[in-house]
Amino acid sequence: KIGVQYNLWGGSVMSLGSKGHEHLIDDIAKIKLPGCFALTELGHGSNARGVETQATYDKTTGEVIITTPNELAQKAWIGNAARHGQMATVFAQLTLNGEGQGVHAFLVPIRNKDGTICPGIRIADCGHKMGLNGVDNGRIWFDNVRVPRENLLNRYMDVLRDGTYQSAI
Protein backbone atom coordinates (compact mmCIF):
# COMPACT_ATOMS: atom_id res chain seq x y z
CA LYS A 1 0.00 0.00 0.00
CA ILE A 2 2.81 2.40 0.87
CA GLY A 3 4.52 1.60 -2.46
CA VAL A 4 1.35 2.45 -4.36
CA GLN A 5 0.83 5.68 -2.38
CA TYR A 6 4.35 7.03 -2.65
CA ASN A 7 5.95 5.43 -5.71
CA LEU A 8 3.07 5.01 -8.15
CA TRP A 9 0.51 7.64 -7.14
CA GLY A 10 2.85 10.24 -5.65
CA GLY A 11 5.57 9.45 -8.17
CA SER A 12 3.24 10.03 -11.10
CA VAL A 13 2.19 13.44 -9.78
CA MET A 14 5.82 14.42 -9.12
CA SER A 15 7.18 13.06 -12.41
CA LEU A 16 4.39 14.00 -14.81
CA GLY A 17 2.85 17.01 -13.06
CA SER A 18 3.90 20.64 -13.26
CA LYS A 19 4.07 23.54 -10.79
CA GLY A 20 0.27 23.61 -10.84
CA HIS A 21 0.23 20.19 -9.15
CA GLU A 22 2.87 20.82 -6.47
CA HIS A 23 0.19 21.76 -3.90
CA LEU A 24 -0.85 18.07 -3.81
CA ILE A 25 2.56 16.67 -2.82
CA ASP A 26 2.35 17.47 0.91
CA ASP A 27 -1.09 15.82 1.26
CA ILE A 28 0.11 12.78 -0.72
CA ALA A 29 3.21 12.49 1.49
CA LYS A 30 1.12 12.71 4.69
CA ILE A 31 -1.49 10.29 3.25
CA LYS A 32 -4.15 12.98 3.58
CA LEU A 33 -4.81 12.35 -0.13
CA PRO A 34 -4.65 8.58 -0.71
CA GLY A 35 -4.48 7.71 -4.37
CA CYS A 36 -4.01 5.21 -7.15
CA PHE A 37 -2.12 4.71 -10.40
CA ALA A 38 -4.75 3.67 -12.95
CA LEU A 39 -2.97 2.42 -16.05
CA THR A 40 -3.77 -1.30 -16.26
CA GLU A 41 -6.92 -2.25 -18.16
CA LEU A 42 -8.66 -5.60 -18.32
CA GLY A 43 -8.15 -5.97 -22.07
CA HIS A 44 -4.68 -4.45 -22.34
CA GLY A 45 -2.78 -5.16 -19.14
CA SER A 46 -0.13 -2.48 -18.70
CA ASN A 47 0.31 -1.89 -22.46
CA ALA A 48 0.01 1.87 -22.15
CA ARG A 49 -0.28 2.48 -25.87
CA GLY A 50 -3.28 0.15 -26.10
CA VAL A 51 -5.42 1.65 -23.32
CA GLU A 52 -8.97 2.43 -24.40
CA THR A 53 -10.12 4.76 -21.64
CA GLN A 54 -11.09 8.01 -23.38
CA ALA A 55 -10.30 11.61 -22.40
CA THR A 56 -12.13 14.08 -24.62
CA TYR A 57 -11.52 17.79 -24.21
CA ASP A 58 -14.63 20.00 -24.19
CA LYS A 59 -13.37 23.48 -25.05
CA THR A 60 -16.77 25.03 -24.31
CA THR A 61 -16.35 24.20 -20.61
CA GLY A 62 -12.58 23.76 -20.31
CA GLU A 63 -13.10 20.24 -18.99
CA VAL A 64 -11.87 16.80 -19.96
CA ILE A 65 -14.48 14.03 -20.10
CA ILE A 66 -13.13 10.67 -18.91
CA THR A 67 -15.03 7.61 -20.14
CA THR A 68 -14.68 3.83 -20.05
CA PRO A 69 -15.99 2.94 -23.53
CA ASN A 70 -16.33 -0.84 -22.98
CA GLU A 71 -15.76 -3.57 -20.39
CA LEU A 72 -12.23 -4.35 -21.58
CA ALA A 73 -11.30 -0.71 -20.89
CA GLN A 74 -12.10 -0.91 -17.16
CA LYS A 75 -9.07 -0.12 -15.02
CA ALA A 76 -8.16 -3.45 -13.40
CA TRP A 77 -6.15 -4.52 -10.34
CA ILE A 78 -5.58 -0.92 -9.31
CA GLY A 79 -3.88 -0.70 -5.91
CA ASN A 80 -5.65 1.46 -3.28
CA ALA A 81 -8.78 1.66 -5.47
CA ALA A 82 -11.16 -0.73 -3.70
CA ARG A 83 -11.32 1.00 -0.32
CA HIS A 84 -9.11 4.02 0.29
CA GLY A 85 -8.06 5.89 -2.85
CA GLN A 86 -9.58 9.36 -3.21
CA MET A 87 -7.89 10.33 -6.47
CA ALA A 88 -6.28 8.43 -9.32
CA THR A 89 -3.75 9.19 -11.99
CA VAL A 90 -5.76 7.88 -14.94
CA PHE A 91 -4.08 7.09 -18.24
CA ALA A 92 -6.39 7.69 -21.20
CA GLN A 93 -6.39 8.41 -24.92
CA LEU A 94 -6.69 12.20 -25.30
CA THR A 95 -8.88 13.58 -28.09
CA LEU A 96 -8.77 17.27 -29.04
CA ASN A 97 -11.06 18.67 -31.72
CA GLY A 98 -11.77 15.12 -32.95
CA GLU A 99 -8.07 14.23 -33.29
CA GLY A 100 -6.29 11.63 -31.13
CA GLN A 101 -3.21 12.86 -29.28
CA GLY A 102 -2.18 9.58 -27.66
CA VAL A 103 -2.07 8.49 -24.03
CA HIS A 104 -1.98 11.18 -21.35
CA ALA A 105 -2.33 11.16 -17.56
CA PHE A 106 -5.13 12.93 -15.69
CA LEU A 107 -5.94 13.44 -12.01
CA VAL A 108 -9.45 12.10 -11.46
CA PRO A 109 -11.25 12.19 -8.08
CA ILE A 110 -12.78 8.78 -7.34
CA ARG A 111 -13.89 9.21 -3.71
CA ASN A 112 -14.84 12.06 -1.42
CA LYS A 113 -13.01 12.53 1.89
CA ASP A 114 -15.88 10.71 3.67
CA GLY A 115 -15.25 7.63 1.49
CA THR A 116 -18.31 7.96 -0.74
CA ILE A 117 -17.68 7.24 -4.41
CA CYS A 118 -17.78 10.28 -6.69
CA PRO A 119 -20.54 10.68 -9.31
CA GLY A 120 -19.80 8.89 -12.58
CA ILE A 121 -17.35 6.50 -10.92
CA ARG A 122 -17.98 2.79 -10.35
CA ILE A 123 -15.55 0.78 -8.22
CA ALA A 124 -15.44 -2.95 -7.48
CA ASP A 125 -13.09 -4.81 -5.14
CA CYS A 126 -10.97 -7.51 -6.81
CA GLY A 127 -11.44 -9.60 -3.67
CA HIS A 128 -9.16 -11.95 -1.77
CA LYS A 129 -5.78 -12.69 -3.35
CA MET A 130 -3.22 -15.40 -2.69
CA GLY A 131 -0.82 -12.71 -1.40
CA LEU A 132 -0.55 -9.00 -0.60
CA ASN A 133 -4.07 -8.74 0.79
CA GLY A 134 -3.06 -5.52 2.52
CA VAL A 135 -3.41 -3.77 -0.84
CA ASP A 136 -7.03 -3.11 -1.74
CA ASN A 137 -6.94 -3.83 -5.47
CA GLY A 138 -9.99 -2.71 -7.37
CA ARG A 139 -11.53 -2.09 -10.75
CA ILE A 140 -12.66 1.37 -11.87
CA TRP A 141 -15.09 2.53 -14.55
CA PHE A 142 -15.66 6.15 -15.62
CA ASP A 143 -19.03 7.34 -16.96
CA ASN A 144 -18.48 10.76 -18.54
CA VAL A 145 -16.57 12.08 -15.54
CA ARG A 146 -15.66 15.73 -16.04
CA VAL A 147 -12.42 17.12 -14.63
CA PRO A 148 -10.86 20.55 -15.15
CA ARG A 149 -8.28 20.88 -17.93
CA GLU A 150 -5.78 21.66 -15.17
CA ASN A 151 -6.04 18.01 -14.02
CA LEU A 152 -3.91 17.00 -17.01
CA LEU A 153 -0.46 16.09 -15.70
CA ASN A 154 1.27 18.50 -18.04
CA ARG A 155 5.00 18.57 -17.35
CA TYR A 156 5.84 17.69 -20.97
CA MET A 157 2.81 19.04 -22.85
CA ASP A 158 -0.27 21.12 -22.31
CA VAL A 159 -3.74 21.79 -23.66
CA LEU A 160 -4.60 25.44 -23.89
CA ARG A 161 -8.12 26.69 -23.07
CA ASP A 162 -9.01 26.84 -26.78
CA GLY A 163 -8.01 23.18 -27.29
CA THR A 164 -4.60 23.86 -28.81
CA TYR A 165 -2.05 21.13 -28.02
CA GLN A 166 1.47 22.23 -27.06
CA SER A 167 4.49 19.99 -26.56
CA ALA A 168 8.21 20.67 -26.35
CA ILE A 169 8.90 17.03 -27.25
What does this structure look like?
- It is a single chain.
- The chain is mainly β and 169 residues long.
- The protein contains two helices and eleven strands; from the N terminus they run ααβββββββββββ.
- It has helices at residues 2-16, 25-29; strands spanning 35-38, 54-58, 63-67, 75-78, 87-96, 99-109, 121-125, 138-142, 145-148, 157-159, 165-167.
- A hairpin with a 2-residue loop joins β5 and β6 (99-109).
- The mean pLDDT is 93.
Provide tags for this entry:
169 residues; mainly beta
End-to-end CA span: 33 Å
Q: What can be said about the biggest beta sheet? A: 6 strands, mixed
Order of SSEs:
HHEEEEEEEEEEE
Let me know the average pLDDT.
93
The whole-angstrom Rg is: 15 Å
Class based on secondary structure composition and strand pairing: mainly beta
- In total, the number of strands is 11
Determine the fraction of residues in helical runs and give it as a percent range.
Answer: 10-25%
**Apparent shape:** globular
Low-confidence stretches: none
Name the beta content range.
25-35%
Number of helices: 2
Describe the secondary-structure layout.
Layout (H helix, E strand, L loop, with lengths): L1 H15 L8 H5 L5 E4 L15 E5 L4 E5 L7 E4 L8 E10 L2 E11 L11 E5 L12 E5 L2 E4 L8 E3 L5 E3 L2
Parallel strand pairs: 1-5, 2-5
Antiparallel strand pairs: 2-3, 3-9, 4-8, 5-6, 7-8, 10-11
